[in-house]
Amino acid sequence: MTKRGKLLLVGNWKMNLGPAAAHEIASQLAGYPFNHDEVEVWITPPATSIPVALQAVSERPVVKVGSQNVHWAASGAFTGEISPSFLKELGCSFAIVGHSERRAIFGESDEMVAKRMSGSLSAGLDTILCIGETAEERETGATNDVISKQLGSAFSALPEVLTSRLVVAYEPVWAIGTGKVASNEDIVDAHSLIRELCKSRLPDTEVAILYGGSVNPDNFGTISKLENVDGALVGGASIKFDQFARLIDICKADG
Length: 255
Ligand code: PGA
Prior knowledge:
By secondary structure, this protein is of the alpha/beta class. The chain is built from 10 helices and 8 strands. It has helices at about 20-30, 50-55, 85-90, 100-105, 110-120, 135-140, 145-155, 185-200, 220-225, 240-255; strands spanning about 5-10, 40-45, 65, 95, 125-130, 165-170, 210, 230-235. Helix 1 runs parallel beside helix 2, helix 5 (about 110-120) crosses helix 7 (about 145-155) and helix 7 (about 145-155) packs parallel to helix 8. The longest helix has 18 residues, at about 185-200. The radius of gyration is 17 Å and the shape is globular. Bound molecules: 2-phosphoglycolic acid.
């Protein structure tokens, strides 16, 4: 995807918005004026709210619904996990893997994230792979190494043929939910490294690269125009309809 292509805006609701609230906000989004040529809008409700969100957007499937995480196997003895085939059966079109909260709080390793990504892509789900450095890693100058290692590990598990879309989200861990946003220069540096690594591993594939970390309507107008930024993965500002709608408007103006 080139920079001036349409932007991809993904709302990561995390463990917020139960079925009733999810239905309300998904319905508002389904009724919000934008078209698919201007901006892509994806949302990830908590697993228990996915069915109602799908139902709310069913009249206007231009809003895509996905999962915040996914297992690699189609079924089996994996208590508490989410099957990629069951997500497909429900009507989900994508999944996120490797979010830093999964890595930090639930101990998911690069290897596990790579397996999840592989299983998700193989099941035909578009897949958002999250990567990014911690504050300590940035302070010690390890940002590029962390990006290369996390991406390299995931790339080693890529299916031979990609039949669904791979998206990479660069989310510096210290910027998530903190109100601290990476500087424009840091975003451009990280995204150009990611672009380079994607191009060398997947020369014929367009991989969208999203920025995530305290994105809001006040900062996204600038971030969305930066080199190699194809959209955003948004947490806090995605669970308030007014704010998310303003982000959609910024994408429309930019697209
Ligand atoms: P935030 O979360 O926008 O609240 O910083 C982003 C994310 O965790 O994907």
